[in-house]
Design brief:
8 helices; PSMG2_sf; two-stranded antiparallel sheet; alpha/beta; PAC2 family protein; Proteasome_assmbl_chaperone_2; Rv2714-like
C-alpha cells in the first residue's frame, strides 16, 4: 500500500488529479496540475510503486543527470503532493501521474487510500478530449458531479457518457462506491491541433478551478502562452486554405449556437474572477 510521508494535518483538503494518456488530449489536464504544483509550491508526500501498475516497455524509465552531475534513473509513476495556497482557507492535495497499464482497480484503491489518510473531502479530476471546436473561440469545459447536491450547487451535470473510459472514469466510479464526492472537468481541445502542449485548454481548466475554489490562482505565463499558441495556429491555418475553410465552418457552427460563454451567468462569473484577481494583485 501507498505510504504517506509525515505532514501537518490538512484543513478540509480538496483533491485535484490528472493523468497523462487517453484522458489527456494535448497534455492539457496534466499541465494544469503541473502549473498548480509550481505556483503553489506543492510538496510530494507519496509515490505509487510503479512495479504493479506500469508496463515499462510502454512507459519506459528515463535516465539522466541530476543537478549534482550524478546519473539518475526516473521510473514512470504517480505522485501525491500537498500544498496550502495563501489565499485559500483550505488545503489542496494534487495527484499527478500516468494512466496505469494494468491493475486499475488496485491503483484507484491505493490513490483513494492515500487521499483518505490525508483527509481529502472532495475529489476533482481533470481531463481533456479532442473535439470539433475552433481554436479561435473560448475552450469549452464540461463538468459533471457524482452527487445531486454538487450538481445543484455547482450547476453541473450528472455523468451521462456511455462508452470506453480511462483511468479518470474508473477513479470517479471508485469514488461513487466509497461515497466520496467527486467532480470532473473536461476541456475540449481542437482536434486539428492535437499535439501538446495546448496552453489555452490548460488555462481554461485552471480558470474552472478558480471558480470551483472561489480563489484567484496565479496564472504566470499561461495567458501569454495561450495567446502565442493561438497566433501560431492562426499562421498554420493561413498557409492551408482547406484548414482555413474548415476553421471558418467550425466558427460559424459555434457562433450560431447558444454559447455559455455569452450567457449572463458566464459574464457574471468572469467579472467575479476579475475582482478576485484584482484583489489579489492589490
Amino acid at each position: 500500500m501507498i505510504e504517506i510521508e509525515e505532514t501537518h494535518a490538512l484543513v478540509d483538503p480538496v483533491v485535484i488529479a490528472a493523468f497523462e494518456g487517453w484522458n489527456d488530449a494535448a497534455d492539457a489536464a496534466s499541465a494544469a496540475v503541473d502549473h498548480l504544483i509550481n505556483v503553489w509550491g506543492a510538496r510530494v508526500v507519496a509515490t505509487i510503486d510503479p512495479e504493479d501498475f506500469y508496463d515499462f516497455q510502454v512507459n519506459r524509465p528515463m535516465v539522466g543527470t541530476d543537478e549534482r552531475g550524478h546519473r539518475r534513473l526516473t521510473w514512470p509513476t504517480t505522485q501525491i503532493a500537498v500544498c496550502s495556497p495563501p489565499d485559500l482557507d483550505r488545503d489542496i492535495i494534487l495527484v499527478r501521474g500516468l494512466e496505469p497499464n494494468m491493475r486499475w482497480r488496485q491503483f484507484c484503491a491505493e490513490i483513494l487510500a492515500g487521499v483518505d489518510d490525508l483527509g481529502g473531502q472532495l475529489v476533482v479530476t481533470l481531463g481533456a478530449l479532442l473535439a470539433d471546436t475552433p481554436h479561435t473561440r473560448p475552450i469549452p469545459v464540461n463538468g459533471t458531479a457524482t452527487e445531486p447536491e454538487l450538481v445543484d450547487r455547482l450547476q453541473l451535470d450528472s455523468p451521462s457518457y456511455e462508452g470506453p473510459t480511462g483511468i479518470v472514469g474508473v477513479l470517479q466510479d471508485a469514488c461513487v462506491k466509497l461515497d466520496i464526492p467527486a467532480v470532473s472537468y473536461w476541456a475540449a481541445v481542437p482536434h486539428y491541433v492535437a499535439q501538446p502542449p495546448c496552453p489555452k485548454a490548460t488555462l481554461a481548466l485552471v480558470n474552472q478551478l478558480e471558480e470551483l475554489l472561489q480563489c484567484a490562482i496565479p496564472l504566470g505565463d499561461l495567458p501569454e502562452d495561450a495567446r502565442a499558441w493561438e497566433r501560431g495556429v492562426d499562421e498554420l491555418a493561413s498557409e492551408d486554405e482547406d484548414i482555413a475553410d474548415y476553421v471558418r465552418a467550425l466558427e460559424e457552427t459555434r457562433d450560431t449556437t447558444d454559447l455559455p460563454e455569452a450567457s449572463g451567468e458566464a459574464i457574471a462569473r468572469e467579472f467575479e474572477r476579475y475582482l478576485r484577481r484584482r484583489s489579489e494583485d492589490s
